[in-house]
Specification:
This protein has 213 residues and is α/β, with parallel strands linked by helices. The protein has nine helices and eight strands. It has a five-stranded parallel beta sheet, sandwiched between helices. A hairpin with a 5-residue loop joins strand 5 and strand 6.
């Protein structure tokens, strides 16, 4: 099964992708990771990417498409790919369908982890981390867990990188860019929307139900 995982910042997309990787041995295809790997390995494409980024420009669809094609053609990942961060526009969505079809594959599941802006703010403002064990909690939704945490409440601190304004700007940008792609897929019978305001294990359970069908 190949699947696309959509979700704005704060929806828990990364957490659920890793859950799928560990439980079902999927391969998480992140376009950002693909680009970084090429740059770090100093390949010809990596040098081109560095030059493009150095000019302050966006990496072309053609370069991204070629990197993704290499993964799709790799039998090691056949029908086991989570597309994370791709497609970002209608052209990429159509190209992905065409490329998979040419390699006797298809998208079997499209999951949108939807969460309202208000919930994102609540998550960020309430997020606490135990500096002793590094576990994350929310002071609004995990009151009992915090109260009974084995390390004690005195180790709970607010994360320094939880800047509400920055996250909300990223959220708005993501939703604006992604809306046409979501509309493109929404009529697909394999399109599934999950309320990402649920607890992590509840979201994982719902994804399990879709994957097992």
């Amino acid at each position: 099964m190949n699947l696309i995982l959509f979700g704005p910042p704060g929806a828990g997309k990364g957490t659920q992708a890793q859950y799928l990787v560990k439980k079902y041995s999927y391969y998480q295809l992140s376009t950002g990771d693909l680009l970084r790997n090429e740059i770090e390995n100093k390949t010809n494409i990596g040098n081109q990417i560095s030059e493009i980024i150095g000019r302050g420009e966006m990496v072309t669809d053609n370069i991204v498409d070629n990197l993704i094609l290499n993964v799709i053609k790799n039998n090691k990942y056949k029908n086991k790919i989570i597309f994370d961060g791709y497609p970002r526009n209608i052209y990429q969505a159509k190209n992905l369908s065409r490329t998979l079809n040419e390699n006797n594959q298809k998208i079997d599941l499209i999951i949108f982890l939807n969460v309202k802006k208000e919930e994102i703010i609540k998550r960020i403002e309430g997020r606490m981390v135990c500096k002793k064990c590094n576990n994350t909690f929310n002071k609004f939704t995990d009151k009992n867990e915090i109260l009974n945490h084995q390390c004690g409440q005195n180790h709970m601190v607010k994360r320094t990188d939880d800047d509400v304004k920055t996250i909300i700007k990223r959220y708005d940008t993501y939703m604006e860019i992604t809306e046409p792609v979501l509309n493109y897929y929404s009529s697909d019978v394999n399109f599934k929307e999950i309320d990402a305001s649920l607890k992590i294990d509840q979201i994982s359970s719902k994804i399990d139900d879709f994957v097992r069908v």
